[in-house]
UniProtKB/TrEMBL annotation:
Domain Olfactomedin-like: 194-454
Signal in keyword set: yes
Descriptive protein name: Olfactomedin-like domain-containing protein
One GO cellular component term: extracellular space
Signal peptide range: 1-16
Sorted UniProt keywords: Secreted, Signal
InterPro entries tied to this protein: Olfac-like_dom, Olfactomedin-like_domain
Length: 454
């Protein structure tokens, strides 16, 4: 629509010049009249015919037509691009539908990217305005139209943003269906809670659920997931915490998956001053959040039922060693079929991981095992059936489980179980024994994996 406006106006301007030239005139000036109208002053020379000046003006006109045509082509290309974006969005929705038949399909929900491209479109229009740097009043109306075009584009942009929101919600609904589908699968899966297997042999492709509830990709640090031992009535609960730094200030609780997607929390816990955490390696277990707290450096819990805090210092745990993707990750909480765990490193272990079992009633360490995985080389760690699994980076979009330590037998294994990641860094990775899935907070995005056992 908008390139057409521009074209029509230019054609009328150009034909005005052409008809003047046809007259055989040489001296033409333009100005703006008192009431803002465009005035053309034509001087007809009575002696020599100024052919060279006419030619020059015709050349200038041609150049301008060329320039405007180039700009029109550029705009056409961009408006064509927008049509493609919309088509891509539609295709995304179709992709989700196909996910229902195959939950292992890898989907990227990149609305952020679409928004950026829409903004680029707006910038291009501004650039176009600047590049048509003509001072003649005839072209002022062109400027006007270009300004109007920018407004139209802005309207288009906001229109498309609301469209994006609608599509996002549609997308979420489809995702919900997928989740229900997987839950059905889980319900008939007799292996939940069962440790009669010989460990992990593979992970599915990641399911990228969506950007965090703050809708900010700058909220790189955080975590999300489900309670690993839900209290009665809280079986469908999801939790989320995110921030721009490793500091931990608050937790959001959602009654079910729908509410998580709609970002409609039933509870928002702002951690009481003095009880703020760090490191983002928390876990929710038995309606209690376990996290690291630095004053004093301790493992801390917030009981969501009673809203009470408590902490225990682990004297051996060192604040000096963190995982490779973030600072401050000194204590990593995990839960599996056997209960609650905390993973840290000590001066005595020289930075190698130590796995400790937490006794829930007393909130003390029951037993601890030393492993040979250097914490600083590890991306994150989690527990499954009493076995600790450690991950590390292979490439920008590939991670691998490279090491396991079995607390029952003391056996350790070098592994190479690669898995895809959506973004390079992640700050929370935990297994959930209630659905046998891995939950990852992948630099702002909610990601999950199905786990395949031997
Ligand atoms: C055009 O007309 C103006 C006004 O009479 C005059 O000053 C100027 O010299 C003319 N230019 C040419 C190229 O004839
Ligand atoms: C959308 O999907 C259709 C059919 O698979 C395909 O022809 C088209 O190129 C896709 N469009 C985009 C923008 O990916
Ligand atoms: C616009 O035109 C004016 C006058 O011809 C010139 O001084 C200025 O540098 C031009 N600006 C750009 C961005 O081309
Ligand atoms: C620009 O938009 C304004 C307000 O809609 C309108 O009055 C004006 O005529 C438009 N200008 C052009 C050149 O289309
Ligand atoms: C949490 O608080 C509830 C209610 O006071 C209590 O019954 C439960 O044992 C507490 N859980 C933990 C792990 O502290």
């Amino acid at each position: 629509m908008f390139p057409l406006l521009l074209l029509l106006s230019f054609v009328s301007a150009a034909s005005a010049w052409t008809s003047l030239a046809d007259w055989g005139s040489g001296n033409v000036t333009t100005s703006v009249g008192d009431s803002g109208q465009c005035l053309c002053h034509v001087y007809l020379p009575d002696t020599t015919f100024p052919a060279s000046r006419v030619e020059h003006m015709q050349q200038v006109t041609k150049d301008l037509i060329l320039e405007v045509n180039i700009q029109i082509t550029t705009i056409d290309r961009y408006s064509g691009k927008m049509v493609t974006f919309l088509s891509e969005l539609k295709n995304l929705t179709i992709k989700v539908a196909s996910l229902e038949s195959n939950p292992d399909n890898y989907i990227k929900l990149d609305f952020e990217l679409l928004r950026i491209e829409l903004r680029e479109f707006e910038a291009l229009v501004t650039q176009l305005k600047d590049s048509l740097n003509v001072t003649s009043p005839i072209f002022d109306s062109l400027y006007d139209e270009i300004r109007n075009m920018t407004l139209i584009v802005n309207q288009l942009e906001s229109y498309d943003k609301s469209n994006l929101e609608v599509i996002r919600i549609e997308f979420a609904k489809l995702q919900k269906k997928l989740e229900d589908c997987q839950r059905e699968e889980d319900n008939i899966n007799p292996d939940i809670g069962n440790c009669k297997h010989e460990g992990i042999v593979g992970l599915s492709k990641p399911t990228v659920i969506q950007l965090n509830a703050n809708l900010l990709s700058s909220y790189q640090y955080g975590g999300w997931g489900k309670d690993s031992k839900p209290a009665r009535g809280y079986e469908s609960m999801y939790w989320y915490s995110g921030y721009t730094s490793p500091s931990v200030y608050n937790f959001y609780l959602y009654s079910d998956y729908d509410k998580l997607i709609l970002r409609s929390s039933f509870k928002h816990h702002d951690l009481t001053e003095g009880w703020e955490g760090t490191g983002n390696n928390y876990i929710v277990h038995g309606n209690v959040i376990y996290y690291q707290h630095n004053t004093p450096f301790s493992m801390t819990k917030l009981n969501l039922t009673s809203a009470k805090y408590d902490y225990r210092v682990i004297p051996e745990a060192a604040q000096k060693f963190s995982y490779s993707y973030s600072t401050g990750q000194n204590m990593d909480f995990a839960a599996d079929e056997n209960g609650l765990w905390v993973i840290y490193a000590t001066e005595e272990s020289k930075g190698k991981l130590v796995v400790a079992k937490i006794d829930e009633p007393t909130f003390g360490i029951e037993e601890a095992w030393s492993t040979s995985a250097y914490k600083q080389l590890v991306g994150n760690a989690f527990m499954v059936c009493g076995v600790m699994y450690a991950t590390r980076s292979v490439a920008l979009n590939t991670e691998e489980i490279f090491y396991s330590y079995d607390t029952k037998s003391g056996q350790e294994r070098q592994l190479s179980i690669p898995f895809e990641k959506f973004q390079e860094k992640y700050f929370n990775l935990d297994y959930n024994p209630s659905d046998q899935k891995l939950y990852m907070y992948n630099a702002g995005y909610y990601v999950s994996y199905n786990v395949k056992f031997n």
